[in-house]
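Record type: monomer structure entry
Structure origin: computed from sequence
Chain ID: A
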Amino acid sequence: MTGPGDADLPRWNGITEPTTVLTNVLLAGVAFVLTARLGVYASAEGLKAAGAIAGGLFATSLAAALGAVAHGIDPRIDAALRQRMWRAAMYMTGFIGAATVMSVAFFAARGSARLAILLFVAAKLVWYMLAIARRPEFRIAVADYGGALAILCAGAVYAWARWSEPGAPWLISAVLVSLVGGVVQARRVSLHRHFNHNDLYHLIQIVALYLFYRGGALLVDR
């Protein structure tokens, strides 16, 4: 999802970027269902790593829903509201990154290392919120989430090598699929003029969310 602007946007029945709105809603719905399933499991089993992944999925569902609203508002009618929804989605993206890194603290670290990761998560989230408050730019969200995925991948590789962590291959696959989605969006790969890079990114991200869900359900707290 890129930032809203005043360009000549596709419109349908008063909704701007209708395909982007639809794919965002689909992404939000899938993320919410996966959140509920993983969240119930994590709570019942007392698994913190799985709970953190569920938290990231929930933040994703909210960010996607806010993104759908932002993209659907015509900037010619209410540019201020469109911008507020966009900023809210950016804020929520920070919680996705925080939850992603937090999971590493529980499945790949112990003792002082776990505490250090959790303190880093708190500092990272504060920095991100301040950065978005000053300048709500998509590149900041990309950098924050990209860094979180890199940390998750490193933690998964470590846990897989040391403890044969069963959820690690799924998480690594999720990161790789997310990377593909990021490249698609950055290079603005479109299948059709009414199915742009944002729409394709949302569908790819749904695949990544399922992989995150499967990985989260298999994680073992250390």
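Annotation 1: The chain has one domain: 15-218.
Annotation 2: The first strand starts at residue 11 and ends at 12.
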